Amino acid sequence: MTGLLRDLAALVDPRRVWGDVEDLVAYTNDATHRRELPAAVVAPESADEVAAVLRYANQRGIPVIPRGAGTGLAGGAVPVSGGLVLDLKRLNRILEIDHKNLTATVECGVVTGHFQREVEARGLFYPPDPQSLAVCTIGGNVATRAGGPRGVKYGTTKDYVLGLEAVLPDGSVISYGGKSVKMSAGYDLARVFTGSEGTLGVITKVTLRLLVLPPSRRIMIAAFPELDSAAEAVSALIARGAEPSMLEMLDRIAVTSLQRYLPLGLPPDLEAFLIIEVDGHPAKVEEDCALVAEVCREYGVHEVRVARDAAEAERIVQARRALFPAAARAAPNLVIEDATVPRTQVPAMVRAIRRIAERHQVLISITGHIGDGNLHPGIIMDRRFPESVRRAEQAMAEIAREALNLGGTLSGEHGIGLLKAPFLEWEFGEAGVSLMRRLKRAFDPHGIMNPGKILGGGTAGVRD
Amino acid sequence: MTGLLRDLAALVDPRRVWGDVEDLVAYTNDATHRRELPAAVVAPESADEVAAVLRYANQRGIPVIPRGAGTGLAGGAVPVSGGLVLDLKRLNRILEIDHKNLTATVECGVVTGHFQREVEARGLFYPPDPQSLAVCTIGGNVATRAGGPRGVKYGTTKDYVLGLEAVLPDGSVISYGGKSVKMSAGYDLARVFTGSEGTLGVITKVTLRLLVLPPSRRIMIAAFPELDSAAEAVSALIARGAEPSMLEMLDRIAVTSLQRYLPLGLPPDLEAFLIIEVDGHPAKVEEDCALVAEVCREYGVHEVRVARDAAEAERIVQARRALFPAAARAAPNLVIEDATVPRTQVPAMVRAIRRIAERHQVLISITGHIGDGNLHPGIIMDRRFPESVRRAEQAMAEIAREALNLGGTLSGEHGIGLLKAPFLEWEFGEAGVSLMRRLKRAFDPHGIMNPGKILGGGTAGVRD
Questions:
Q1: Residue B462, SS3?
Q2: Which of A3, A181, A218, A436 is most buried (CB neighbours < 10 A)?
Q3: Residue A161: which pLDDT band, with cuts at 50, 70 and 90?
Q4: Secondary structure tally for chain B: helices H, strands E
Q5: Of B102-111, B356-365, B449-458, which one has max mean pLDDT?
């Protein structure tokens, strides 16, 4: 056992410290393809243990990589500088679901899907629904401002964080916010941590805002011959007061790939398929369904219909969730992009993505949350071939650049992580990135927290 | 003309630089009672002019106090260290109302009420409704995370800021965010500026999220013999799925004072009056009205009824808005507190405020946004008498302490400013405040931005 492991074993139960390669392998990557071995893995069970490990690492300049379920799509949990991976899944208690204040307080390692089921069993509702909700954690969701299909109506994780507790690199514990939706006291430290991707400290506890479960819900499906008219229909719908809780788009490539995996009986020769969910008061749901059908027809829909029953609705939702597994099955490797543009720029963005695919001779399926402009181009590549990786990376960079040209952002819900760190200045300019660097130093003066993420240029780390 | 004024006149049109005492007097205070004279006032008309003034002040260590309409209730715009007041009211263009993306982009000096009317004329909706909306500015609202009665359903200004542009003390301009509700790129600089009360830089432009105007709206009024049962009714209402867009409470002192000013025909011997607004789909509004009546009866209401017509509804809303003017007329000076607790702690908070009023022999009316726990105790005092000021200040400090004991926050929607800076550590501890100081230095290394606010201990400033 090395000195590092011995030291860690003095801070937390030695059965929760790992240093053997066979144990470390599970911590080399997230849902991206970059892999690096950490020096050790520690699984704390309390904020105090997190504080002890951070204090130790901070004194020695050892990188610390906080990790939820490792489902990130931007390389945020890859230990590129070696160091310690903090496996936070054992901080997994739901501390309180407060029905009267409509809040919940949970530890960072609580699994999102589990939390949602607990909340819904009480007639309450926690909307953020990232694709990986069966395994991903609330802490990871907060650290990346994770979203999901419901973002169009309900926003993303950031819109539900009322307060949080975090451990700073020096081992001190801060907390910001509580059970009130109103707060105007001091700098919004909760929102600084939200989306900080483990680079400022470790989020250990979160207080979340809950809603009351909508009493009614309907799923519709619409197939358009043209993508432009589908996108126009979406903007018109929302501007006319419909409040869809999901507005997903699949292009022809995505539908073809999906139907190979799960037959849906969709016509294969159309350009755009929308999955539309409306929820809320039954009367409003009825009206919104009628409005969806009316507007879709105005914009030349080929077919639009409400799911016949709960079973068909469930099948459609499951099909959407199966999209990336389906694509992954069809392709050796898949880079899922996260470029986000204003809703009205979706057609322009889709055209740009197609031009980029053409130029670099890569296959790109286009799906995504069309209602909020958050597209997920799926760039198919094979990482065994450097040329394939190079072309995929070029396409990714061009997609990012194009999203910014159209008034968008580098990431809607995945984060910057490792993959998009080189592009950060494109979005925020030198002044913005320089300010972010100063902010990072204010939280983490020794630069131990998740080096190389967001701001790039990770410090050379300890590999022990 | 002094050197300072000459220098400023070289940076902006001399007709927008003032240094005479008679001109400066209008800039000595906000809606609180503390007054200090600045050295000069400058009214820039563009972000470039703001940058030029900031660069100049930063090089010389001259305090800069950004100012919207001066309606703040925490002393945030009082030039306690002298220096330059930046009057931002001329940056007052609504740059865009984007119906399809449901966003608006405005300069910081746009008046909130004017903006709301423009938006509503297009069938859209910007919910935040601070008491002073007829004069206050969007920039000031963002800088203080201003709220209002609609917070219970719609949140506060912070929940509508999608992006902003700000000038840093060194004159560089940063911008963060855009038209998408989804964004996960870098540290959330927009949210750091939101609520920063002019201490980090100057917010010059804001992109706001809009909603579609709710088609239906109803006002109800309910009178309870007991405050506890009114508060219980409120929690029950929300937990049972009603979504009131306003849930205001007035205690007996407030109602008495109000009825002297505007007769409402309310029985004078009851403890708690609620003004309840519901909005949304007509069917949902009908059901919520029925639910409000049912729940109020369960909790022993004396009388509950829907406003007979639009005229009566308008009269009730106007009455609520008249509350502070009415109190101000009755009292020499009024300190409006902003303590906020979880909704369920409202009865405990009200009892605590009454104990505090009794102990210090001060008259405190209790009103506020009971639905979100944001109370506004009105502490009546006379600033001509030091003993009266001292007692009011003691009461204010104890109210703040009590709100924190009950799991609340120092401020729900006014900000910390000057008045509550001494209490900051009570809420965030030494580690939290120390982190906020480091964050402040990352943005404003020379400490020129609005010294003495939020973090206290203003630098000795230039009075010229």
A1: coil
A2: A181
A3: very high
A4: 15, 18
A5: B102-111
CATH number assigned to the domain comprising residue A163 = 3.30.465.10
B224 & B305 share domain: yes
Q: What is the pLDDT of residues B313-324, one digit of tens each?
A: 777 777 777 776
Please state, in angstroms and rounded to a whole number, the distance separating the CA atoms of residues B248 and B226.
15
**Would B47 be classed as within a structural domain?**
no
How many CB pairs (< 8 A) connect A and B?
298
Looking at residue A324, what is its pLDDT? 67
Closest Cβ opposite residue B438 in set A238, A369, A442: A442
A207 and A238 fall within a common domain: no
Angle at alpha carbon of residue A450, lines to A447 and A453, rounded to 5°: 100
Contact check, Cβ <8 Å, B177/A409:
yes
Looking at residue A294, which CATH number applies to its domain?
3.30.70.3450
Q: Which of B332, B342, B273 is nearest to B304 (CA)?
A: B273
Q: Is residue A11 part of a domain?
A: no
The H or E element that residue B165 is part of is strand B161-167
Tell me how many domains chain B contains: 3
Please list every residue in chain B whose beta carbon sits closer than 8 Å to the beta carbon of residue A413: 182, 184
Closest-approach residue (CA) in chain A for B430: A174
pLDDT at residue B300 tops 90:
yes
Whether residue A318 sits in one domain with residue A282: yes
Query: Are A156 and B101 inside 8 Å of each other by CB?
Result: no
| B443·A443 Cβ contact <8 A | no
Range of the domain at A370: 331-405
- B286 plus B242 within the same structural domain: yes
Q: Which of A77, A100, A74, A103 is nearest to A89 (CA)?
A: A77
Q: Is A201 on the interface with B (CB under 8 A)?
A: no
pLDDT in tens, A309-323: 778 777 777 777 777
B84-87 and B64-67 beta bridge pairing: parallel
The per-residue pLDDT for range B332-358, each reduced to its tens digit, is 788 888 989 999 999 899 999 999 999
State yes or no: pLDDT of A330 exceeds 90: no
B216 Cβ under 8 Å from any chain A Cβ:
no
Enumerate residues 280 to 319 of chain B having a beta carbon within 8 A of any beta carbon in chain A. Answer: 280-284, 287
pLDDT digits (tens, 9 = 90+) for A24-53: 999 999 988 889 999 999 999 999 999 999
Least CB–CB distance from A239: residue in B99, B281, B341:
B99
> Are residues B167 and B255 located together in one domain of the fold?
no
Q: Check CB contact of A416 with chain B, cutoff 8 Å.
A: yes
The reply to whether A176 touches chain B by the CB within 8 Å rule is yes
